[in-house]
Amino acid sequence: MTAIYDNAYTEKEKNIYKRMHRNYIIILCVFIFTNALSFILSFFEFMRDARIWLEIYNIVTSLAFGFYSLPFLDIKHRQTKIYYNFLCDKDVGLKEEIECVFEEYKEERVTKNGLECRVFIVKIFNDVKERTYDREIYVDSLFEFPVFEKGQKLRLITYANILLEYEIIYFD
């Protein structure tokens, strides 16, 4: 079986999220500490002349931290967290192993579970209903698209229809 997500890649991506989250918490703590310190210092008598500068410092650092936090938490952190959650879930979630016949590639890109994916279609035989049906399988767009030919029989391991591993069994 050819694995799309190997253990080294998964751990590297998980560490990126953890490091990014840790750095944000450190910046938040420094911001809170310095603003609290300047606020407390503004009450002392010997800082009476510098009180206006401490208030300006609080305003400027608050604006800077706000302008840093909004795009960071909205875009970068959210997307990284979605990918991190997917990588954690794929290790413990329900994986499905199927045997199918490759049908075609689709040109469109879709978003599945927060991941941008490319799509290919396979034909699967349903034993209960005794008929074949088409199923869309998603491949994370960060990886090379596996090269299959129409009619190849495949064994796929998927999680939420996202391809994790594949194997070419034979060609019809």
Write the layout of secondary structure elements.
Layout: E1 2-3, H1 7-41, H2 51-92, E2 96-112, E3 115-126, E4 131-140, E5 152-159, E6 162-171
Antiparallel strand pairs: 1-6, 2-3, 2-5, 3-4, 5-6
Helix pairs in contact: 1-2
Structure overview:
The chain is of the alpha+beta class. The protein is 45% helix and 34% strand. The protein contains two helices and six strands, in the order E-H-H-E-E-E-E-E. The protein has helices at residues 7-41, 51-92; strands spanning 2-3, 96-112, 115-126, 131-140, 152-159, 162-171. The protein has a six-stranded antiparallel beta sheet with strand order 1-6-5-2-3-4, covered by helices on one side. Helix 1 packs antiparallel against helix 2 (51-92). The longest helix is centred in the middle third of the chain and has 42 residues, at 51-92. The radius of gyration is 26 Å and the shape is rod-shaped. It starts with a strand and ends with a strand. The mean pLDDT is 89.
List descriptors.
rod-shaped, alpha+beta, about 170 residues
Largest sheet: 6 strands, antiparallel
Q: What is the N-to-C order of secondary-structure elements (H for helix, E for strand)?
A: EHHEEEEE
Strand order of the largest sheet: 1-6-5-2-3-4
Number of strands: 6
Strand content: 25-35%
Taking the alpha carbons of the first and last residues, their distance comes to 19 Å
How helical, in percent, are the residues?
40-55%
Which term fits the overall shape? rod-shaped
Low-confidence stretches: none
Radius of gyration over C-alpha positions, nearest whole angstrom: 26 Å
For the residues shown, what is the average pLDDT?
A: 89
Backbone structural class: alpha+beta
Continuous helix count:
2
